[in-house]
Automatic annotation (TrEMBL):
It holds the Pfam family ABC_tran. Residues 15-255 form the ABC transporter domain. The keyword Transferase does not apply. SMART domains: AAA (SM00382). The keyword Nucleotide-binding applies. PROSITE patterns: ABC_TRANSPORTER_1, ABC_TRANSPORTER_2. Residues 261-285 are annotated as: Disordered. Keywords: ATP-binding, Nucleotide-binding, Transport. Coiled coil: none annotated. It comes from the Bacteria. InterPro entries: AAA+_ATPase (IPR003593), ABC_transp_ATP-bind (IPR050319), ABC_transporter-like_ATP-bd (IPR003439), ABC_transporter-like_CS (IPR017871), Oligopep_ABC_C (IPR013563), P-loop_NTPase (IPR027417). This is ATP-binding cassette domain-containing protein. One of its GO terms (molecular function) is ATP binding.
Amino acid sequence: MTILSLNHVSQFYPIKQASWWHRQSQTLRAVDNISLTIEKGETVAIVGESGCGKSTLGRIAALLEKPTEGTVYLDGVDVATVKGQSLKALRKRLGLVFQDPYSALNPRMSVDELVGEPLAAHSVGDDAYQRSQVLHVLDSVGLGEEVLGRYPHEFSGGQRQRICIARALVLEPSLIIADEPLSALDVSVQSQILNLFVRLQKTRDLAFLFISHDMAVVNYVADTVVVMYLGKVVEKAPRSTFFSTPAHPYSQALLAAVPTLGNPAKSGGRRRRERGLQGDVPSPINPPSGCAFHPRCTRATDLCRVAPPQSTAFLGDEAHYVACHFPGGEPYAEPDIQGEAV
Ligand code: ADP
Ligand code: MG
């Protein structure tokens, strides 16, 4: 059963640049013609460097922004066709978790108010039901009754993120959208929250849109990996296929740069340089011609400079799509990180 379906979705932001001699209006293509589906119980991970459009795609999926082009279907409903109470009911299907658990929680509200607020806002059940549901979701994120009357400043970052996750779960959504939910946390806490996500996936049959720039995390949680570069999907594959045979040079470079947890010898800048992921993501206002990755690609030819690559099945595998003129090449071993992230 498909929970979320994005069809040819784009998000263009108008950018006004004024200088003393002229004004010009340009377009920033943050998300450019992306189609994607998420099935019940499936975790789709969106990866890519900062500035590739991951959060913009997440905001569109979360119904926080309307796309410039394309359609969004949630639970089979075209969200552009619903308003008012029907849209409110549709929003109940979504739980949102963001990067920063410090700014996400109103400091003047106690935990019972914070977690119970969505139930009250949607008038779900009576007081007794709301209280039992709050306790139930707090228990699922590893927090007990004693936290009910306490306030956000009394908690650590990891505990605050647990409260945010409880809030996201309280309306029993079918899809959780989590945008870099571990990035603001101490490394020691990250694996605990990561394990919490995995446990919730298993016990609640939830679908996840999990946005991360961390390949080790993605290897741990994803069923499907989607790699974004400058607003476009450059590769999409089931997790094991992706980590054993990444086909796009950008994916290969991202994997080569994995700072292998607990193994400093393999990590960091040296490997990154060796594998050639150099420079930064170019501006999406003036993206490079042809394949947008070509200025950073060691395999680029004249063709890549002029012709945008089409997305095609890699080696005939209908589950593995790559947008590259010369996909494949150097195979990579799956990073040795599965056990260490826990
Ligand atoms: P990521 O989450 O992968 O880092 P974002 O989706 O945040 O990427 O941003 C993609 C691009 O869109 C960036 O160049 C960013 O500056 C730009 N962008 C994001 N939101 C806006 C906005 N509201 N107005 C203008 N530009 C934006
Ligand atoms: Mg982001």
